[in-house]
Design a protein that fits this description.
This protein has a single domain, classed as Autotransporter beta-domain (Lipocalin, Beta Barrel). Helices cover 7% and strands 55% of the residues. It has 3 helices and 17 strands. The strands form 3 sheets. It has a 12-stranded antiparallel beta barrel. Strands 7-8 form a two-stranded antiparallel sheet. The longest helix is centred in the first third of the chain and has 17 residues. It starts with a helix and ends with a strand.
């Protein structure tokens, strides 16, 4: 609760700062609109964007224009559930162990308790023409998970809490955004591209097992950074500007087309948002996101720990989240964005860990 309040106060403080007078950015935007009646927030560097920065680019850039974005995301996960029902440790260790040997360890013995994932994204965009924009993006991911271990047999006593981590360059994607239609208060475009997973998909770590022995083991799927697949990326976006509010919606899909032994499930995202200019250089927005992720496909035979994250069937699901965010234009070329998200509903193919909250920060340079 204290963190939530801190983020809200930060949004308000930045709004006040953005409303301060600035010589490089006059408060009266009427002349600007008259001089450029057909341009939008993405094609004018000195005008604050009304689109959430966490949405895949929702507009094309003018020919010859560059934009570089550095974005950092931190997601915290805590607790477990299955199909929306909360699960205790004792309930989870009653699940059968898919990889039991004879009668040894017939049930799960390790329970994930908390996971923090951080993703740093570097994105470069270039307006090839007024109708086509090219984007190149690279992601670096870091994961850390704490787990409770229980005796695999007998009374199932609690043994210890352990921590494991992994980090690597995750993936590289190339996309193009094509303008389909644009008027003064409306635009529509499509995006198409490819994503190549670069992160290691079979990282091995030295881990303390429930049998009280240290062993070199392949990390479970949830702790791997990549899957070595190549995926098709598609998106369709509509943005409409009203008198007081701006509305937008986007459908985005990621589908694996070239696969290895296993791959993370395909995903479908649907975002709708409403934004409002609250100061000459500041926009607040609310974003509602629905996401569906399929189960992991395939299997790595070396992933066989007695933990839920080693079972590919315990992956994917549906979730709905709500985000509060803010875009701030600092000067002619520089802007920043902040967004805080909380889940409204999570219907996971569990047992799985639930998302607790997500915080995003972005810096954009246009030239």
């Amino acid at each position: 609760m204290k963190k939530n309040l801190l983020y809200i106060l930060l949004f308000l403080a930045l709004t006040i700062l953005a409303d301060a007078p600035s010589e490089s950015m006059p408060h009266d935007h009427s002349n600007m609109e008259q001089e450029h009646p057909k341009t939008d927030n993405h094609s004018m560097h000195h005008k604050v964007s009304t689109v959430p920065f966490t949405v895949m680019e929702a507009g094309t850039h003018k020919a010859g224009h560059f934009m570089v974005t550095l974005q950092h995301m931190r997601m915290s996960m805590d607790g477990n559930s299955n199909q929306g029902n909360k699960l205790s440790d004792q309930e989870i260790i009653s699940y059968p162990n898919l990889y039991k040997i004879d009668e040894m360890m017939p049930f799960l013995s390790t329970v994930p308790k908390r996971m923090d994932m951080e993703m740093t994204m570097l994105e470069a965009m270039y307006g090839v023409t007024d109708e086509i924009t090219f984007m190149l993006m690279a992601n670096f991911i870091s994961k850390e998970m704490s787990l409770n271990s229980y005796s695999p047999m007998g009374t199932r006593d609690f043994l210890r809490t352990t921590t494991t981590s992994n980090s690597d360059l995750s993936n590289l994607s190339m996309s193009s955004f094509i303008k389909l239609k644009e008027r003064q208060n409306f635009r529509m475009n499509i995006g198409i591209g490819f994503d190549k997973s670069l992160g290691n998909h079979n990282t091995i770590k030295n881990i303390m097992t429930p049998m009280n022995m240290r062993m070199n083991m392949t990390l479970p799927y949830a702790m791997q950074i990549g899957d070595k697949s190549t995926s098709l990326l598609t998106a369709f976006t509509i943005v409409s500007k009203g008198y007081d509010f701006n509305l937008g919606a986007q459908v985005k899909k990621k589908s694996a087309v070239l696969k290895k032994d296993w791959n993370f499930g395909d995903s479908l995202d649907f975002n709708i948002w409403v934004s409002k200019l609250v100061a000459p250089k500041s926009t607040l927005f609310l974003r509602l996101k629905y996401q569906k992720i399929n189960k992991i496909e395939g299997r790595d035979l070396s992933i066989n720990a007695p933990v839920q994250t080693a079972n590919p069937q315990y992956s994917g699901g549906k979730s709905t989240s709500l985000s509060l965010g803010q875009n701030i234009q600092l000067n002619h070329n520089n802007s920043i964005g902040l967004e805080y998200s909380v889940p409204l509903k999570q219907d996971l193919n569990g047992p799985q860990m639930e998302v607790k909250n997500t915080f995003n920060f972005a810096y954009k340079l246009s030239f």
